[in-house]
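User: Structure please.
Assistant: Input sequence and predicted structure:
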Amino acid sequence: MTAPRFTVACDGPAAAGKGTICRAVAAHFGFAHLDTGLLYRAVGAKTLSGMTPIEAAETLTAQDLTADGLRSAAVAEAASRAASLPQVRAALLAFQHEFAAQPGGAILDGRDIGTVICPGADVKLFITASAKVRAERRLQELLAEGADTDFATVLADVTARDKRDSERAVAPMRAAADAVLIDTSCLGIDQAVQAAIDAIAGKLA
């Protein structure tokens, strides 16, 4: 069951489980899903190839969102830096607004969806977890991809990114005042997904 237009905004720090939860929620309700982080990762990837962040954002295409290597640590770092630039965020705003307003319902996840991109969203979620838990999750992902790294390095990266994302002058990461907080530090994925589904189902009803 979906509403003709129903928007869910999902925010939170890296490796908290936003993507996994949002994909499951989208499948459950039949919503379209946009990982807005992919927009910034695609911009970051293009900057690593020599483009300026603004040029990369202004020339972004749907194909760029499926490029190889968007989940790498280097791209994540470049994406976080690009996301702090007002011109980059402005260039990507219209795409996100259009996606959020589509018929059938949409869920968008990122850092500033509920506070900046879709402040009027029907439901706002803030997915979080402790830095240590998130670093361990990210470490396992990187090791599975063959990366040569360790927990201390990944924890430092996670902490630095949290600081940069939450303290940037433009659209800092924070929970909207009316967001439903879901801390996944001690939750299994099924429990976390169910908490999100329950929050959304109440509004749909």
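Residues 151-167 form the longest helix (17 residues).
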